Predict the structure.
Amino acid sequence: KAGVTQTPRYLIKTRGQQVTLSCSPISGHRSVSWYQQTPGQGLQFLFEYFSETQRNKGNFPGRFSGRQFSNSRSEMNVSTLELGDSALYLCASSLKSEQFFGPGTRLTVL
Amino acid sequence: KQEVTQIPAALSVPEGENLVLNCSFTDSAIYNLQWFRQDPGKGLTSLLLIQSSQREQTSGRLNASLDKSSGRSTLYIAASQPGDSATYLCAGQTGANNLFFGTGTRLTVIP
C-alpha cells in the first residue's frame, strides 16, 4: 500500500507570495492533518480535515488555510508569506488512531 | 496547554548498548501515545502506538510504555545499532485527532 505523498518536496518563495502544498493520504484514510516543523518551535499542529470538513485547528494565523477533497486529498495554502514561514510542512493521514506521515515539503521564504 | 518534554535532548552510545528515552507530559489526560523516529530532513516514521486501553507496546527491539497517572512514557531500545541513529519523538493525543510533540532526543549510535 502506498504511503502518504506530498508535493512538491521543495519550494522557494519570496515574502508576500502565496503557496499551495498538496498531500495524498494512504488509500482509505479519511483524516488528514498538517504540521509545521521549525528548529525553534519543533512540530506544531496546524489543522485536521475529515470528510472534507476541518475538524480541529491549531494556533496559527488565518494566513494558513486548508481544504480536503472528496477523494481525501488535502491542500494547505499560506498567503502573504513571511520569512518565519520557512519550515518543513508535514502531513499525516490516519484511519483510526495511528498517524502516518509523508516526507514533507521544505518551504524556504526569501 | 499540553507541553511535552523529552530527556535527554541528545544521547551518544556505543553499538550494542541498551538505552531508555524518556517523555513526560504536563497534562496526564493522554488518550494515545505514539513514538516516531525522524532521520535528518525527512518525514516521521511511526514506531509504536500505545492506545488508551494499553500500557505498553513492543516491536522487535523496541518497547514503549505509558504511565498515564504520572504522565510519562519511556522508549526502550535493546542492543542498539548504528542504523538506530535518528531523532526520536514522542507525541500525545488528547481525544482530538491532533498530536502534541516533544522536542525530541537525538540519538547517535557509535559503531
Q: What stands out?
A: Chain A has a mean pLDDT of 95.
